[in-house]
Predict the 3D structure of the following.
Amino acid sequence: MATATHPADGEGDGNLPDNDKKSNGESPKQHMLNGSAVENEESVKIDRYGFLGGNQYTNPEHERRLPQEKLRKRETKWLDMFINWDKWMSKKFKKVRDRCRKGIPPSLRARAWQYLCGSHFIAEQNKGLFAYYLSQDGETKCIDDIHKDLDRQFPQHEMFLSKGGVGQEALFEVLKAYSLHRPTEGYCQAQAPIAALLLMHMPAEQAFWCLVAICDKYLMGYYSPGLEAIQLDGDILFGLLKKTSPSIHKHMRKQHIEPIMFMTEWFMCVYTRTLSWTVVLRLWDQFLCEGVKVMFRVGLVLLRVTLEDRLNECPSFYETLEKLRLREMPAELQDESFLFTESLRLSVTDRDMQREHVKQVARRKAAKEAMEREKAAGAQGTSVKHSKSKRKS
């Protein structure tokens, strides 16, 4: 089977130059694995996704692989959809959705992601723009912030473990170009793992346009100053939690735990820093097809599995938040079949999500108006007091 890092065929997956060697000739196998220097290169095995270790590492012994014959049939079906993509999306979307839920064939994942988010078409309409951005200097603070974050993105992946290597250079190009493309947003740290994930599947220019499409179409407002969009989605998630897991909702309310305290990284990084890599890829197949509702469903399952039977282990604010950091991932959450089966079994419909969205928007609007009235009243009171004081004098 083709891997996500090294596609077997050329269907939409552009290959970056080989990054197996550092610029100084050092092999990546001489780097750090799980925080320890590795003396014996033969003891280090790169998994099929390019990871040498860490939470994202996939043990080959625990992998589930499709039989080759079944995989080839799926590839053929996807190639057929690419030929008549608009027709499939407009008239047979449920079939596209079902195929995304089953998992996109690794050899076609890059092309499928670009079609699903529409970046392929955006790139066609903006030829030369990425190269233009690379020729510009960029805003100094953004450039400095990007440089600081480069070696923090999947440091145990073969593409990014070499400081100043090809992978980090491509990541810099994508993030710099985005900061110039959306100057009012600039650069947000949470964009870096998303860009890195995309670069594991496609060249820098394709990854850039994918990032643009994702930020515009799926995560609109997530990276804007103030983070109002992510706060709103946190409130929506909490509202849905009351419906799916009322005991957890009550527990968190009692401990004054706000959603922004635990779900920010989940949503802003689209779980790239949270889940095992096989699960991340399956989640992204669905996310780019169905949108942010996939993030909500997965978040609700994470909360239920992590806390439902462990509330007695969380007597205080601290213990609850520690559980939600998922440093010790429950075994069932590492099983892609379990997670997505459970997410689809939730008693939450699209209408429920829309209703909760309307409710939370109205609630936030009312709170903002009340605050403005209180502020105006305070200002008026100060003015009256000042006027009386002036008359007395």
Observations:
- DSSP finds 18 helices and two strands in the chain.
- The radius of gyration is 24 Å.
- Confidence is low (pLDDT under 50) at residues 1-42.
